[in-house]
């Protein structure tokens, strides 16, 4: 989606510059040359005047209020499914400039359990989504399918076996659990049918200005267990609403998911 952001900023600046030049200088020059005849307005000026207000509003809303994203992978199942379209609160963690993502006004920091969209350090041109598990100063460990937070294991409540559909059907049979993350209980998936190997086990202490993020689909998520801590500067916003779900292999639109809050 970064190409769209660059294009939107570029078009807004271009149409705004053309509109301003026409208002301050070009129109007067055109009318002076036309004399008593009606001055003919170039097409680029006509389009710029028409589209600049629309582009400016879209850019401001998308950059500072809410931005739509599409979930492309299964790393956040069962919370978010492949084909979910979500809205992200862009001012939850500070107002940031488009393209550079530089924070200009601080408005808040992520809380434990927030589902966040960010630029991963190893793929700065992409948008990823995970859940904040560790805050600055926390010690997070992951052993035997269990998260330990500051030395204490989290409690897990069983909800039986997961039944997937559409593009997520291959997760059927996984253990569906409710992870009692302090302040934000949420569902996670654990697989029993994978070959025996270590799934990102270890212990980490989160440095200042960084966060430890994990996917809810614990055996199918490339997260902080594998690539390290998420810098605060790479945050894009907080996911809060599913506004559409489209999965052709599951029959198209799932109206039951539309309007659901992101837990």
TrEMBL record:
GO molecular function: signal peptidase activity
Family: Belongs to the peptidase S26 family.
Domain called Peptidase S26: residue spans: 45-244
Catalytic activity: Cleavage of hydrophobic, N-terminal signal or leader sequences from secreted and periplasmic proteins
Species: Cognatiluteimonas sedimenti
Keyword ATP-binding attached: no
PANTHER family (alphabetical): CHLOROPLAST PROCESSING PEPTIDASE (PTHR43390:SF1), SIGNAL PEPTIDASE I (PTHR43390)
Membrane topology recorded in Swiss-Prot or TrEMBL: Multi-pass membrane protein
Keyword Isomerase: no
TM regions (residue ranges): 6-26
Pfam families (UniProt xref): Peptidase_S26
Major site of localization recorded for this protein: membrane
EC number: 3.4.21.89
Keywords: Hydrolase, Membrane, Protease, Transmembrane, Transmembrane helix
Signal peptide: none
Protein name (Swiss-Prot/TrEMBL): Signal peptidase I
Highest taxon listed in the record's lineage: Bacteria
Localization in the cell: Membrane
Lineage start: Bacteria, Pseudomonadati, Pseudomonadota, Gammaproteobacteria, Lysobacterales
Classification via Gene3D superfamilies: Umud Fragment, subunit A
């Amino acid at each position: 989606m970064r190409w769209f952001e660059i294009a939107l900023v570029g078009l807004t600046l271009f149409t705004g510059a053309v509109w301003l030049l026409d208002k301050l200088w070009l129109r007067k020059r055109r009318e002076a040359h036309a004399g008593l005849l009606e001055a003919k307005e170039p097409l680029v000026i006509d389009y710029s005047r028409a589209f600049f207000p629309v582009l400016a509003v879209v850019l401001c809303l998308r950059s500072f209020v809410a931005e739509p994203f599409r979930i492309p992978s299964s790393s956040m199942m069962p919370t978010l499914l492949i084909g979910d379209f979500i809205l992200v609160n862009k001012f939850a963690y500070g107002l940031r400039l488009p393209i550079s993502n530089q924070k200009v006004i601080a408005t808040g920091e992520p809380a434990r359990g927030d589902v966040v969209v960010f630029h991963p350090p190893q793929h700065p041109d992409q948008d990823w989504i995970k859940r904040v598990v560790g805050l600055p100063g926390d010690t997070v460990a992951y052993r035997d399918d269990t998260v330990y937070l500051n030395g204490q294991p989290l409690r897990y409540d069983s909800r039986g076996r997961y039944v997937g559909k559409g593009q997520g059907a291959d997760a059927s049979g996984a253990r569906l659990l409710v992870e009692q993350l302090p302040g934000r209980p949420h569902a996670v998936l654990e697989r029993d049918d994978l070959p025996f190997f270590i799934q990102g086990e270890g212990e980490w202490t989160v440095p200042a200005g960084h966060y430890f993020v994990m996917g809810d689909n614990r055996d199918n998520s490339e997260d902080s267990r594998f690539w390290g801590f998420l810098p605060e500067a790479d945050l894009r916003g907080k996911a809060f609403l599913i506004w559409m779900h489209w999965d052709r292999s599951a029959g198209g639109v799932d109206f039951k998911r539309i309007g659901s809050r992101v837990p």
